[in-house]
Amino acid sequence: MSSMLKQIKYFSILYFLLLLVDIYTKINMPDIPYRYITKTIVLGGLLVFTRYYCYDKNKKTSNYLYYGLILFFIGDILIIDHTNTIRFVVSMILFVAGKVCYTLKFKHKEDFSIKRLMPFFIVCFLFLAIVYDFIYHNLNLYFIPVTLYFFISLIMILFAFIRKGAVNNKSYYIVFAGVGVFLFSETTMVIKTFYGDVLYQDFLIMFCYALGQYLIIIGVLFENKKLRENSVIL
């Protein structure tokens, strides 16, 4: 195994151990001040990892992943105190901007078939119909913000979906799995907020969000031909 792959493997183990500590803190201890510590360590570690392996100062357009993660990091820290309306709104704006950066990273110049997109649009429509059946009557003034938030998420997933054929299969499937569990985390949060409690909701929201971020970053790393050919991680 190459030195780089060893480092990624060790980081992965450390990342998920720290994530479990953060989840334990969320479930069993006061958010303030403890989660400012645990969440900063988890997301800060992922940010440093991404900076080291994905950032290239000579290729500014390829650094959207890193820029997006910075926005998510700031938003995640702000939303710890989610009862503060200003912090909550700013964090939502940062999350949307972060998704836009991820979408720009997933963008490519390869042609794609409209016919191939039809199943994707059908699944998205059914997904939104099911979710809104649960939450619609409780959205009230939040209808437009939540709809826009989901719209941006689906655009991000669309661009992850049409990477098929433009990148190697391992990168494609890892990234697509990442955006999928990312969306699952967001959907669980929305249902919890506007409908009612979900079984193991705190664990599911936090774990799937962190797993989604991890898979997206690892998947982008596997666009590197040398890395994927020597990989024993995934």
The overall pLDDT, averaged over residues, is 88
Strand content: under 5%
Biggest sheet descriptor: none
Helix content: over 70%
**Rg to the nearest angstrom?**
18 Å
Poorly predicted ranges: none
Strand segment tally: 0
Structure class: mainly alpha
SSE run: HHHHHHHHH
Number of helices: 9
Give the end-to-end Cα distance, rounded to a whole number of Å: 13 Å
Number of domains: 1
How does the overall form come out from the CA principal axes? globular
Notes on the protein architecture:
- This protein is mainly alpha-helical and 234 residues long.
- The protein has one domain.
- It has nine helices and no strands.
- Helix 4 packs parallel to helix 6, helix 6 runs antiparallel to helix 7 and helix 7 runs antiparallel to helix 8.
- The chain is globular, with a radius of gyration of 18 Å.
- The two termini are 13 Å apart.
List the helices and strands and how they pair.
Elements: H1 3-28, H2 31-54, H3 64-78, H4 85-106, H5 114-139, H6 143-161, H7 169-194, H8 201-221, H9 225-229
List keywords for this structure.
9 helices, 79% helix, 234 residues, mainly alpha
Summarize the structure.
With 234 residues, this protein is mainly alpha-helical.
